[in-house]
Amino acid sequence: MTTLAKLQRNFISDCLSGKLTEENTRLAKDIDTQSISASGLMGIYQTSAIGNIINSMKLTYPVIEKLVGDVFFRAMCKQYILSHWPKTANMDDYGSDFAHFLSEFEHVNHLIYLEDVARLEWLFHQSSLANDALTTDWKLLAKVSESEVLKLKFELAPSVVLIKSDFPIEKIWRMNQLNAPQEETIEILDSETLLLLYRDGFKIEMKSLSKGEFELLGSFLYGKTFEQAIKISTDAENDFSIQVALNKYIEQGVVCGFAH
Questions:
Q1: Residue 167 lies in domain
Q2: Are 162 and 221 in contact (CB under 8 A)?
Q3: What SS3 class is residue 94?
Q4: In CATH, what number is assigned to the domain containing residue 157?
């Protein structure tokens, strides 16, 4: 007799596998097949499982769904799911490589911006789930000598995400929000976009960045010293004000601390 634990493992395996046949349905010998085949019965559960996963992806990728339409989105997600089964029961973890899947999915090759929009939506999702930043006493910064300040490494809040794209993904994203005003045209090419995402309370903020701001925050993100960050950001943008940018992002909670 098959143990309960093995029955459960076989059930999950049959639900989260490819096309079912009588030969590869693991529960076949434990199912009464007088009225319906084992693959037919497990196919019902598999279809339900796929439907639930698609509904989860609709929450993570609402703009992609709107851009391609509900019917096509469901069909596209099914193809993705069949080759990328969830590894955990937490659907918040699922869909990280959907953008890469779209880059290779031949039916959307003409939508050259779709991969980057999906990447933006995944990072938006990740930012919403990030931990809160720890509280920093910024008065301690005033006690650091000028020479030591240059050696500091400023830290970004856990929810901070930086994204760069060759397409106007921010405009595309905003145009496809509920009740958003519709722009007549968007210039797809030669539209470099530099974006900052971070959580302010329960809301995810999306901000366009200048090249200097992007390089400054990117330097902090990758653990550069303040001195290195100054050089990288001022090289990227003439007349870039480090003081103004740093004060702004400390005030917004984007820069959340510093370490020696």
A1: 130-260
A2: yes
A3: coil
A4: 3.90.930
The DSSP 8-state label assigned to residue 179 in this structure reads: T
Max CA-CA distance within the chain?
82
In terms of C-beta distances under 8 Å and separation of at least 24 residues, what long-range contacts does 219-222 make, across chains too?
220/153, 220/154, 220/155, 220/156, 220/255, 221/156, 221/160, 221/162
CA separation for the pair 218, 230 (Å, rounded): 11
For 97-128, the pLDDT digits (tens) are 999 999 999 999 999 999 999 999 999 999 99
Domain presence at residue 250: yes
Strand partners, 195: 163, 208
Cβ atoms of residues 108 and 69 within 8 Å: no
Q: Cα(41)–Cα(33) distance, rounded to whole angstroms? A: 9
Model pLDDT for residues 27-37, shown as the tens digit of each residue: 556 566 666 66
Query: In the prediction, which pLDDT does 221 show?
Result: 97
